[in-house]
Write a structure and sequence with these properties.
Blueprint: E1 18-22, H1 32-37, E2 44-51, H2 52-57, H3 61-71, E3 76-78, E4 83-85, H4 96-107, E5 115-120, H5 122-134, E6 140-145, H6 148-154, E7 159-164, E8 167-174, E9 179-183, H7 192-197, H8 199-209, H9 211-225, H10 229-249, H11 266-275, H12 282-299, H13 305-317, H14 334-343, E10 349-354, E11 357-361, H15 366-384
Parallel strand pairs: 1-9, 2-3, 2-4, 2-5, 5-6, 6-9
Antiparallel strand pairs: 7-8, 10-11
Helix pairs in contact: 4-5, 6-8, 6-10, 8-9, 8-10, 8-12, 9-10, 11-12, 11-14, 12-13, 12-15
Length: 385
């Protein structure tokens, strides 16, 4: 019999993870983490990596991790003292951090039935997630986000990435964690700047598809700026729910097409982060990106003036920036090309045509973008006078 000239197969891989909310995850009597890592046949091996910025604010954290593992020794074997890595976006620029984690995973024999727990902001979660995804082609990852942005957005997702060739997230994987634990008590020691910055991602998802959430953000803005924990918890949980729903129901969790609605405001945000040498937080850059794209949408006749003004007013009420000097850098428009190249296919940019109503466009008028930039720069000058 002649061998077939062509073979083909289609198969589906099922992924499952749960986002859990708690407070005091390392309190000895809190069973959540122990329940997550419990495996048949004995205690699970666990390696922990901590964000240095979090440890600086909570120096007791490494000892809390050790004591928690001791208390739950029948279910958890902490294979080494927690590793502490520097936080912030620069972490993703330096390959040695990934190599250090891979070496630790190798040295401590972390296999596919063991766990890496990453506690920190979005950059630390990205680095640890990438290392976990490529070690043994995938070891079990638990994310414990510690910022508003990570708990509301980036920690609830399937992507991991590090920067290369001056390009954000050029190297990365699609690899869901086995669990996300949002410990809301960790937000209490955030600097004000990081408390505010993460709210831009909540604004983003509200603009794309939840007008009621946008109304709630307007109502709660004063409480959020007063660091009301209950108000923040409500916003984080709603945003995480929307993100998880999009991953599950979009039909494109691994972004095989050119559409990426949840990256509304991000084509310029990613470029602004690079141009500012990461002076701008990701959430701050996203806020500017939202203001820019909404201003562009108004100029293009897509978005009404009143809706654009509501967006600007909310960002202002949340003390988020609308402008940065890097907006005037001619290289900003390179962000459109880089965004298209990152996705592949045709240019696909998310915009809104109303509060809570997202759309996509495949062409951007550069002259209108420049006018939108000029409007934001003029607004910034007027605010300073």
């Amino acid at each position: 019999m002649e061998p077939p000239a062509r073979l083909g197969a289609t198969f589906t891989v099922e992924y499952s993870f749960v986002v859990r909310f708690t407070s005091g995850a390392f309190d000895p009597d809190n069973e959540l983490l122990a329940d997550v890592v419990e495996v048949a046949g004995g205690p699970a091996k666990l390696l922990v990596v901590l964000d240095a910025d979090v440890v600086a604010r909570r120096p007791e954290l490494p000892e809390q991790v050790r004591r928690y593992a001791q208390r739950h020794a029948s279910r958890i074997t902490l294979v080494a003292d927690p590793i502490v890595l520097g936080g912030g976006e620069r972490l993703k620029d330096e390959p040695e951090h990934v190599r250090r984690l891979l070496r630790a995973l190798y040295d401590h024999r972390i296999d596919r039935h063991s766990y890496l727990l990453a506690l920190g902001g979005g950059a630390l979660l990205d680095v640890a997630g990438y290392a976990a995804a490529v070690a043994h082609r995938g070891v079990r990852l638990i994310r414990m986000p510690t910022t508003v942005l990570a708990q509301a957005d980036s920690g609830v997702g399937v992507k991991n990435g590090v920067n290369a060739f001056a390009t954000k997230n050029f190297v990365g994987t699609f690899a869901p964690p086995v669990a996300v634990i949002n410990d809301e008590s960790l937000l209490s020691t955030l600097p004000d700047r990081d408390w505010r910055a993460g709210l831009s991602e909540v604004v983003k998802v509200a603009l794309l598809g939840d007008g009621d959430l946008f109304d709630e953000l307007e109502r709660l803005a004063p409480a959020l700026m007063d660091r009301d924990a209950d108000a923040m918890s409500a916003m984080v949980r709603r945003s995480a729910q929307i993100h998880l729903s999009h991953i599950v129901n979009s039909g494109d969790a691994f972004e095989r097409t050119s559409a990426r609605p949840l990256d509304f405001g991000h084509w310029s945000a990613h470029k602004l982060e690079t141009l500012s040498d990461h002076r701008l937080r990701h959430g701050e850059a996203v806020a500017i990106g939202l203001a820019l794209d909404c201003t562009y949408a108004e100029l293009a006749g897509i978005l009404g003036h009143d809706d654009r003004e509501r967006v600007v007013a909310l960002l202002h009420a949340l003390q988020l920036p609308l402008c940065a000097p890097e907006l005037s850098d001619p290289r900003l428009l390179d962000g459109l090309r880089e965004f298209r190249e990152h996705l592949g296919g045709e240019l696909t940019i998310a915009l809104i045509d109303g509060i809570g109503s997202g759309i996509v466009v495949h062409e951007i008028d550069h002259s209108l973008i420049r006018r939108a930039i000029a409007i934001l720069l003029e607004h910034e000058v007027a605010e300073r006078v």
